[in-house]
Design goal:
Elements: E1 6-10, H1 19-29, E2 37-41, H2 47-56, E3 63-67, H3 72-81, E4 84-87, H4 93-100, E5 105-108, E6 127-130, H5 135-147, H6 149-166, H7 169-187
Parallel strand pairs: 1-2, 1-4, 2-3, 4-5, 5-6
Helix pairs in contact: 1-5, 4-6
């Protein structure tokens, strides 16, 4: 992957994650980004249809399906190689995972199409949002991150800062303690 622009997706391959949009975006982006690699890490019920779509769009040299990878030591090289992390809809803990590695996130701005972890997403700070199911919007957001290295570095720094400031062990412990105290007070 060295020397190639890399867009990463890591999750179960479910239809509602709209990974098909990412594959379609790859078809539009490869002309502007020679050597583009869209790495799709995961497996699931949509795997066969996504692989068929990539073949149909003749993206064999652009889209790489790795299958499921679970070990952090095996996932780390993918995150460390990525210039952007794209999760078109229904993003969850993968958002925090990408931010930990300082990888800018590209995802839908539609809060209802996401899981609670979307709270960590800051459009223009640690990633870029696009309108729900908008292929052109997603393609444009990815193109901007891949084309502008200074902007990509700014988003990357914002990603790391988000995790370092808002998602620390002490804040998680404080939050859990607060929830327990609240529940205990209500029980009385």
């Amino acid at each position: 992957l060295e020397g190639r622009p890399v867009v990463l997706f890591v999750s179960r391959l479910q239809p509602w994650n709209r990974t098909d949009l990412l594959i379609r975006a790859a078809a539009a982006l490869r002309a502007r980004h020679p050597g583009l690699c869209v790495a799709i890490v995961g497996d699931g019920p949509a795997s066969d249809s996504l692989r068929a779509l990539a073949r149909e769009l003749r993206l064999d040299d652009t889209v790489k399906f790795t299958g499921a990878i679970y070990g952090e030591d095996q996932l780390a090289p993918w995150f460390l190689s990525a210039h952007a992390f794209c999760y078109p809809a229904n993003i969850g803990l993968s958002l925090i995972h990408a931010l930990i590695y300082g990888v800018p996130v590209v995802t839908s701005r539609e809060q209802r199409a996401q899981n609670p972890e979307i709270e960590a997403f800051r459009d223009g700070v640690n990633g870029l949002g696009f309108p729900q199911d908008d292929l052109e919007g997603m393609t444009g957001a990815l193109d901007r991150v891949l084309s502008d290295q200074a902007f990509q570095r700014t988003l990357s720094a914002g990603a790391r800062a988000t995790v370092e400031h808002d998602y620390t062990i002490s804040k998680m412990v404080d939050g859990l303690e607060g929830a327990l105290r609240y529940a205990a007070a209500r029980k009385r």
